Amino acid sequence: MTGPSEAITTEVPQPKQRPVFPQTFAERAMGSGWSIVRTVLFRWSPPPLNRWRLLLLRLFGAAVHRSAYIAPSVRIEYPWNLVVERDVVVANNVILNCMGRIEIGAGTRISRYAHLCAGTHAYERRDMKIVRRAITIGRGAWIAVDAFVGPGVSIGDRCLLAARSSAFSDLPADSVCMGEPAKRYRAWAGIGS
User: Fold this and answer.
1) Residues contacting 117, CB < 8 A, separation 6+
2) The whole model's pTM is what?
């Protein structure tokens, strides 16, 4: 028991540091510029002005084929890590978080509210450092409404990731995959078959 004159001390652990995302000064500057351009010019462009949006993305380092369509409400972070091949359609309210490289194969469709996140935290480290992990989406694939593709995942050619499913590991080609985590459900021939 302590008396009124004795001080009680409690050891309080140091707070965790802010998660670190390894970026160069140039990447930070481009990120700030893109944030302004995305908010003012990209987001408010009418849907028919797709070429304008593709031009803005290219100005910030994205490799986007001229036949791709990207809706104005798509949220793209770090566009210099984005590769979009021919005839890709990215629908409204999709999130493409390109902390790591995201490659989207020809003829692929990404439906509304889908989320592709190419980065994760090193949760075993005290600083929770952010780690870039590339995502590859094959040709003729379909990422359905509200689906999630996690960091480091490859989706095979002509693979359908069903609505509200989550891919945390690679998914095979020519398959319908669903669930959380997504698993192969049955064969599928792809878009346009």
Assistant:
1) 95, 97, 99, 135, 148, 149, 150, 151
2) 0.86
